[in-house]
Amino acid sequence: MRSLWITKHGGPNVMQVRETPDPVPGAGEIRVRVAACGLNFAEVMARQGLYPDAPKPPCVVGYEGAGVIDALGEGVPDLQVGTRVMFMTRFGGMSDTVCIPHTQAVSIPEHMSFEIAAAMPVNYLTAHQLLFEVARVRAGDRVLVHMAAGGVGTAALQLCKGVPGVITIGTASAAKHEFVKAQGADHVIDYRTQDYVEEVKRITHGEGVDFVLDALGGADWKKGYSLLREGGILLCFGLANAAAPGKAHWLKAAKQILSIPKFNPMNLMSDNKGVAGVNLGHMWHLQATIQRGLKNCVAQFEAGTVAPQIDGVFPFAQSAEAFGRLEHGKNMGKVVLTPS
């Protein structure tokens, strides 16, 4: 099989396509010939050495993909060879062949492309967990979405459209505003030229928002907390501020980590506010949740309530360009890789 390997921590040049023997599915596993896999900011930080969960290099990362089942292990109950599936995996996804527990895959319809299927699991499961399992967004709520043109950002905006009366505010560079509005944002703030704290206050007439979806981290978590009205929750799911294009910038990363605010439960109680986190990579033991979430992705796509936006599709050989889309903040929607 062909895989995209991180040979060592560093810039895009450390990525290398290598061949290794095909894996064999064990009991309860399926083997998938992968047609497309999703690229996330976690993989960028893993390459740079800033992602603590990632295996040590040389390694193959990747959390999601789509393809066709070509082999079954013993005891797989409801999937067959030849079935088209989307799947999640704890690393190893950036390969043309993967073996995974059958509970981490679901069948997809013929009219769903492999690229669309690969773009869904991480982004839409993360957004759904944030909005409906932790936050419980309801009609009339106000939601601030940072990095609104990214994968999770677009998923969150689309999902919020399904709740009547929810007001969404997205942050994005000016060139991405029309795209963000098309995903459902009611208001868009150019974080490069505007103070988003002051803009949110202006938009909400000083009242603030109910939920802040923040994958920026660092000092932005303090700002987000300040924008919550009573009963609101700051939802943390990343630390993008610690990363920069190319190699890891350890001074910048350390500065962001040191700027993370310390939330005192007594103050949370007094403020009637909350702080919560979501890390999909720490939910592998919740197989039923993963299975339910993947089926929900397919159902929402079938119903037309969500439509993953593909920024670009890149073969493994052009991984440096693909990673660069995320690192330089150029992407609008999902970046997808293909083994060919």
List keywords for this structure.
Rossmann fold; 340 residues; seven-stranded mixed beta sheet; alpha/beta; 11 helices; 2 domains; globular; 15 strands; Quinone Oxidoreductase, Chain A, domain 1; six-stranded parallel beta sheet
Compose a concise summary of this entry.
This protein is of the alpha/beta class and 340 residues long.
Question: If helices are DSSP runs of H or I spanning 4 or more residues, what is the number of helices?
Answer: 11
Distance between the termini: 11 Å
The domain tally reads: 2
Low-confidence stretches: none
Q: Major beta sheet, specifics?
A: 7 strands, mixed
Give the overall silhouette: globular
Oligomeric description of these chains: single chain
What would you report as the Rg, rounded to the nearest angstrom? 20 Å
How many strand segments?
15
Gross CATH architecture of the largest domain: 3-Layer(aba) Sandwich
What would the CATH topology of the largest domain be?
Answer: Rossmann fold
Average of pLDDT: 96
Strand residue percentage:
25-35%
Write down the CATH class of the largest domain: Alpha Beta
Helix-strand category: alpha/beta
Order of helices and strands: EEEHEEEEHHEHEHEHEHEHHEHEHE
Helix content: 25-40%
CATH superfamily of the largest domain: NAD(P)-binding Rossmann-like Domain
